[in-house]
Design brief:
This is Catechol-O-methyltransferase domain containing 1. It comes from Sinocyclocheilus anshuiensis. By secondary structure, this protein is of the alpha/beta class. It has 8 helices and 5 strands. Helix 7 links the parallel strand 4 and strand 5. The longest helix is centred in the first third of the chain and has 25 residues. It is globular, with a radius of gyration of 19 Å. Bound molecules: S-adenosylmethionine.
């Protein structure tokens, strides 16, 4: 038998879920079809060969829009995977724009590069393979700076990437850092969560909140 509070929570959850589904369905009506056929090819090849389709989600539209809105010219992506996010962001960059995409696995560069080469935007992307921290050190040593950074790799290193970017001026003043998974399926705020990734992201969120150098916003984007 449910207590009154449980009863209320039960109905709230259903109410929230309905609102969420309705909002999601409604918002899908307003997504424009992807313009470039090459990115469709990339999506198709990724789904066919490599992955769980959940990894490829509507967040790339948000990234592309952020690049456009911030008028970024130089973007750093930490964790490239098959290049779907990189190519989407490249579409929003000006002709002389540049993305440096860090990816641990050389086979993912081999997968993505031929598709980038077919795209009119592919020339804007440079893939650096190996641990991202090594690439960040290399970029800092040569005085590189970026207008926007997208962190989307190994969760345990998010704090290290974030600190390194700011401490070594890899992000220009007034630049933007976007970080994927900061709510991580609720595991960051569920009290009994013993999940390592959840804990790493919880610590990361706290570090950013305590850092007087930045302003932050945490936004939920649906993946269904
Ligand atoms: C979630 S996927 C990235 C998705 C991509 N940002 C997109 O939007 O399409 C994470 C990627 O980070 C890479 N990765 C994990 N650890 C890394 C590291 N230490 N250095 C560089 N890349 C890493 C993984 O190989 C994987 O391809």
């Amino acid at each position: 038998i449910a207590t009154f509070n449980e009863y209320l929570n039960f109905h709230n959850v259903y109410f929230m879920f309905d609102v969420f589904i309705d909002a999601h369905n409604y918002s899908q009506l307003f997504i424009k079809p992807i313009k470039w056929k090459i990115i469709i090819l990339l999506l198709y090849k990724t789904l066919k060969k490599l992955t769980d389709p959940k990894l490829l989600n509507s967040c790339v539209y948000v990234l592309k829009m952020l690049v456009h809105m911030s008028k970024a010219k130089r973007v750093l992506e930490i964790g490239m995977f098959t290049g779907y996010g990189a190519l989407s962001m490249a579409e929003a960059l000006p002709e002389n724009g540049q993305i440096v995409a860090c990816e641990l696995e050389p086979y993912l560069k081999e997968f993505a590069q031929p598709i980038f080469d077919k795209s009119p935007h592919g020339k804007k992307i440079t893939v650096k393979t190996g641990p991202a921290m090594d690439t960040l050190k290399e970029l800092a040593a040569t005085g590189e700076q970026f207008d926007m950074v997208f962190i989307d790799a190994d969760k345990h290193n998010y704090i290290n990437y974030y600190k390194f970017l700011l401490d070594h001026n890899l992000l220009r003043i007034d630049g933007v850092i976007c970080v994927d998974n900061t709510l991580f399926k609720g595991r960051v705020y569920l009290k009994d969560s013993a999940d390592d990734f959840g804990k790493a992201l919880r610590d990361f969120n706290q570090v950013v909140t305590n850092d007087f150098r930045v302003e932050q916003v945490c936004k939920f984007f649906s993946q269904i």
